[in-house]
Write a structure and sequence with these properties.
The protein is about 35% helix and about 15% strand. It is of the alpha/beta class and about 325 residues long. A hairpin with a 2-residue loop joins β2 and β3. The chain is globular, with a radius of gyration of 18 Å.
Amino acid sequence: MTATPSVPDASLLHPPLPHLTGPVLRTPESCFEGLTDFPYAPHYQTVGGLRMACIDEGPRDGPVVLLMHGEPTWGYLYRSMIPTLVAAGCRVVAPDLVGLGRSDKPVRREDYTYAHHVAWMNAWLEAMDLRGITLFCQDWGSLIGLRMACAAPERFARIALGNGGLPTGTEKIPRAFHLWRAFSRYSPLFPIGRIVATGCARGLSADARRAYDAPFPTRRHKAGARAFPSLVPITPDNPERAANEAAWQVLENWHKPFLTLFSNRDPITRGIWRVFQTRVPGAQGQAHRKIEGGGHFLQEDCGPEVAQALVEFVRAEA
């Protein structure tokens, strides 16, 4: 059995649940009616006074696959991956981050911080009491999901990372991200469906665009979606640098299986896979894969292929 890595300075990896400073919105269920190719009922958990939603499909006793989405998507992103995983006998759990999807949405920008998102998800994971987890994380799903795994490594059996990272503010940031960050801050319009479409190499149907717009019936519902890009640690003085460096200490002693599944057409995370293959011991000897033809949202462009790679990952290390 692979040893569980020790956790340095646990307080950095376990930020406290926040006290919200403003009102909270809840997207009406009617906004989600009529979504195509998405028959999955939401399951809810209350964390820190907020209702968080997740998809929970497949056998209760199957190996748990935790699918962490990024921004500005939600569990709908995984609709083409869930059938393959469930057919393989996995229990598939895909939560919606606070501020996105069916989860509650604080209105004040100040209520959204990187530490708050980690605290909400750590508490959600403890409430769900998931164990033996195979984590797949992408975009902000990795910035949060990797922190979750490093805070509670005993709950995780393996990690697969796609188009994501764990920045500490010391890395070179691509121009594409700076443009996206500026757009999220200053654009008077923030069309979620169109934004997701620009991150897909193979386009996005009108129905799918509507599904990504569904959680945001008003501008006030978009506070969290707009906040995410500004929370990424891109400078050394970022308040979450120390916590992410502590997480890297865990990853540099992570001997459990670690797989990279990066696509070849993502201008934001291009090449980051090399960092993880070099620094994470558990990445050695794994069947790392480049997903051809996938953009930033590789789940949209190549979902079944990514799902099959996860099935093989789980079975190889079972």
